[in-house]
What we know:
The chain has helices at residues 42-57, 77-91, 98-105, 122-135, 149-161, 181-194, 210-220, 251-276, 285-298, 385-388, 431-435, 442-452, 461-478, 496-503, and strands at 32-37, 65-71, 108-112, 141-145, 169-173, 200-202, 234-242, 307-310, 312-313, 315-317, 320-322, 340-346, 356-362, 369-376, 396-402, 406-414, 422-430, 488-489. It is an alpha/beta fold. The protein has an eight-stranded mixed sheet with strand order 8-12-13-7-14-15-16-17, sandwiched between helices. A hairpin with a 7-residue loop joins strand 16 and strand 17. The longest helix has 26 residues, at 251-276. The protein is globular, with a radius of gyration of 24 Å. The protein binds 6-O-phosphono-beta-D-glucopyranose (BG6). Residues 243, 262 line the site of 6-O-phosphono-beta-D-glucopyranose.
Amino acid sequence: MATTTRATPEHDGKEANPLLEGLRLRRTPEPCALVIFGASGDLTKRKLFPALYSLALRRLLPESFAILGVARSESTTEEFRSRMEEAVREFGRDRFDEEAWERLAGGINYVATDFADEGGLDAVRDCLTELDESRGTRGNRVYYLATPPNAIGILVQQIGERRGASGWTRLIVEKPFGRDLTSARELNAKISEFFVEDEVFRIDHYLGKETVQNMLALRFANGIFEPVWNRQFINHVQISVAESIGVGSRASFYEETGAIRDIFQNHLLQLVALTAMEPPIDFTADSVRNEKVKVLRSLHTPGPKSVVRGQYGPGFVEGIEVPGYRDEEGVAPDSETETYMAAKLYVDNWRWADTPFYVRTGKRLPRRETTIAIEFNRAPHPPFEEMARGGLRPNVLLVHIQPDEGVSLEIGAKVPGQGMSIQTVHMDFLYGGAFRTALPEAYERLILDAMLGDATLFTRTDEVEEQWALVDAIVATWRRDRPSFPNYAAGTSGPSSADDLVGRDGRAWRRP
Ligand code: BG6
């Protein structure tokens, strides 16, 4: 009798499912060169090099590997290496190991060029050809575009025109991907002149966070949640991305984006999509993204009363006096940029109809905390006194994205002693306690995935366009009225109109 062998990832030649693997499992990419455009920027220093160093320390980078930093500023390879060493020492999550650093540093190069110039990338191409010889990178390239959005079109053109005949090429594009639907479409069109979708990795670093990926594990690796994960059992959802930091040295960037383009368009909407999506048939890039995009497409455009924006004034954060947004360096004194936004969203489909998703994000809030709170309906009949009085809270499943990464379930429990007194308690799972390991930084996971050609944790063209379509619709309503800013003091939990947004529905925000 003939036996049928089902295709396994090894048999059909595809990559094994990355979502089921931790960084501890070995997944070493093929030889390649990583080219970082925007090498003198903040992201390169604070995130990219510390992540590359952590990968090098764990021997997760290819044996034959090189990094080419590209920026306008005149500098030498030596200077660049020593600046990046300082950055790794300052911002890295791991102890500094000379041997691991030397291994990485040996492959670091720098080219100063203006990529807006016609032939600006010739020097880059020549250096890469030389690295193929000296470092064995075999014509394989990952281009990381960590530049402002307006430089990306020209870079894509220049890279595309210089694609070599051998090896593969991949593009990692930093957020924000455009500034509205029109510019995102233009960028997508430009990219598709030279690259196919599988070669494009649009970063939303939230997707690289362990706790964000765990949302998929929580929902789809456990049988108990799916039956109650819908409008019949869930009263509403609250998603908060709160930050205590202000705009810092990024005023020129932030003045252009505001909270809606900086966080809502990407991180917040991705969290909504992961919370609301249907189970994917498997964990391949397209299956996961097909389900996410359906959610984004189902989002009802909120009317003006369902969106609140705010801007912080002077105040105190963690006991320290801080200036208002309009007094920050580089911010216009009459700036109308929002540093806070909240919205009531509806996912118009069978699973979620009429279930509000309240989302909010802001800078200069009391503390840094990102959570997803799923609030269930109250028990239908209250046999206990506390419930009858409304004193007992409904069950809430709380996903702590950061800090204190983990999940907790709020339940009612009997207070020890005589009588039947009920109190809300927490059943907690904490990453730190359960796995006894520090969580990798999102960028480690994402850089490695791009080198491996796995796009599961990156946003696809249609996702990004759906996200912008919603943002454009909200921004269009904002044009009609002028906000009266500032409307919340730094260190408070946002404008009072945000409380009204949920208060009108008889609800309240969870206190961070
Ligand atoms: C970035 C935003 O995407 O995310 C920043 O541009 C924000 O404004 C940052 O501070 C927050 O990231 P994390 O990983 O610290 O939550």
